[in-house]
């Protein structure tokens, strides 16, 4: 960690779920923060029993305990950015929104986690309205993948033109900026992530890698939060995070019995 003697490192807080398999969720977030030289804090919304092939059980601790974790972090640390991941239920979303409204951190990166790649539901179906109504207006940047964007917009995104049109439509839901991840879309041998804020529209392009990746969305959002903590501007924080994830997938490895790869964060 690069800090001057006596100075404090920047702190990023992840409010997300735990992945016992170590590939996604809080575990991916803390590795990403560490790789960026940022001190990582965590408030755990849900515990998943999980390996690289799927989720076998989910436990959501009582919401007052989640609030106690968030309060403990804001009571003692200068928090430069908050990353939101798996939020499990509408009740959790309301508690997180209440806390963010009370503490007003400088940046909030919202990864609208809904369903894992393995098919497991990570957000109850009735929580979508709470996510739209309470959290999107608090978000500095929203980072949906294509299926999540389709649920948020209640519209199909089948091709490049639909993805282009989805970006302003997503921004209109309230976040300051949107980074729409293109991995689920067939755009040839490239993956195109589309970024927009009030002033800028960009596309970040990377060569498509033919791998089953796990934890990529969590890693991208926490890399953006780490970059924002380090004082990097929003478009560059997002662009650099897409490069970081691409490299981490390329170096990734399969720690379980199947072919699913987790990222190499370092
Ligand atoms: N488990 C947890 C706790 C998560 O937060 C997430 C995604 O955000 C996942 C699993 C899903 O990861 P993936 O879809 O990359 O397999």
TrEMBL record:
EC numbers, comma separated: 2.7.1.49
Enzyme class (EC, first level): transferase
Boundaries of every Pyridoxamine kinase/Phosphomethylpyrimidine kinase domain copy: 19-260
Pathway terms, separated by semicolons: Cofactor biosynthesis; thiamine diphosphate biosynthesis
Keywords per UniProt: Kinase, Transferase
SUPFAM superfamilies tied to this protein: Ribokinase-like (SSF53613)
KW Electron transport (keyword) present: no
One Pfam entry name: Phos_pyr_kin
GO molecular function: hydroxymethylpyrimidine kinase activity; phosphomethylpyrimidine kinase activity
InterPro entries per UniProt: HMP/HMP-P_kinase_dom, PM/HMP-P_kinase-1, Ribokinase-like
Protein name, as recorded: hydroxymethylpyrimidine kinase
Source organism per UniProt: Luteimonas notoginsengisoli
Taxonomic placement: Bacteria, Pseudomonadati, Pseudomonadota, Gammaproteobacteria, Lysobacterales
